[in-house]
Design goal:
Elements lengths: L11 H14 L12 H8 L3 H13 L3 E4 L3 E4 L3 H25 L4 H17 L4
Antiparallel strand pairs: 1-2
Helix pairs in contact: 1-3
Length: about 130
């Protein structure tokens, strides 16, 4: 389910967080679904258990998962809604980036083409 890129500059715990977020967004993980235990993730990914725990703690802090002592970690009730809200907030970032690109001489067609290609790649990666 999870894959770690050991050559990436992105810390392993952030890679795990990002993958959980993506799985929630595409519907592969739903409210109430149990995440793999820290121990099983450690074995599967050959990663220090503290790294897995750090990712789970951060996911819990931002409200995407809930930890139930003695039972494990579960996807939160409104996790997908929270992620969609955060994603919509990124539209402002795209707008600012588009302005910067345009001022730097990148054409409107190139900018919109890049956005469309990104959307098409995302569509190819999930079944909606």
């Amino acid at each position: 389910m999870f894959q770690i890129d050991t050559m990436s500059r992105t810390p392993v715990y952030k890679q795990i967080i990002s993958q959980v977020e993506k799985l929630i967004i595409i519907g592969a993980l739903n409210s109430g679904d149990k995440l793999p235990s820290v121990r099983s993730m450690t074995m599967e990914l050959s990663v220090n258990p503290n790294t897995i725990q750090k990712a789970y703690n951060e996911l819990d802090t931002i409200g995407l998962i809930r930890s139930v002592p003695g039972r494990g970690c579960f996807i939160g009730e409104d996790a997908r809604l929270k992620l969609r809200s955060v994603s919509r907030d990124k539209l402002e970032d795209i707008e600012k980036l588009a302005q910067e690109l345009f001022l730097a001489g990148v054409s409107t067609d190139e900018i919109t083409g890049a956005v469309v290609r990104g959307v098409e790649r995302a569509k190819g990666g999930c079944d909606r």
